[in-house]
Amino acid sequence: MSNYAVLKETWAEVLTVARDTETKARINGVQAQMKEFNFFYGIVIGELILRHTDMLNQTLQKKGMSAAEGQEAGLSICNDASFVAFWQKVNALVVKCDIGEPTLSKKRRAPSRFKDGLAPPEFPSSVEDYFRWIYFKKKGYGQCNWRAEGSF
Fold first, then answer.
1. pLDDT of 21-35, one tens digit each?
2. Is the pTM of this model over 0.85?
3. CA distances from 3 to 8, 35, 113, 127, 148 (A)
4. Is-contact 70 59, C-beta < 8 A?
5. H helices then E strands: how many in the chain?
């Protein structure tokens, strides 16, 4: 994340030098995306997943590692305390990198082909709840419970 601000400055410099309109349009698009919280959150969670995967890979290759210890190491970021620490880190980085505030998207009904019975649609009650859902479900940590229970 240390390169994020530098990259934003670089785009601004390249924009002043570039003459091609297609290049300028692409740079403007990248700059707009980099100012959005969702984009930034995706980058930070991607970094977390890659770091955790690297650490887990090194841990599992140690001699004498039992299956139970490996499973425990894999589940170390699959809890609410890890999300709270991650959320605080993201919010601190948002201020540092001058990123827009997180917002909830507009509530929409699911298309009728996706309706699951007569159950009302579920919407997150807060921005933090929405990004908690992404942290655990969308980015692969939803697999944690399945792996812990031994069912895939």
1. 898 899 899 888 888
2. no
3. 9, 14, 44, 26, 36
4. yes
5. 7, 0
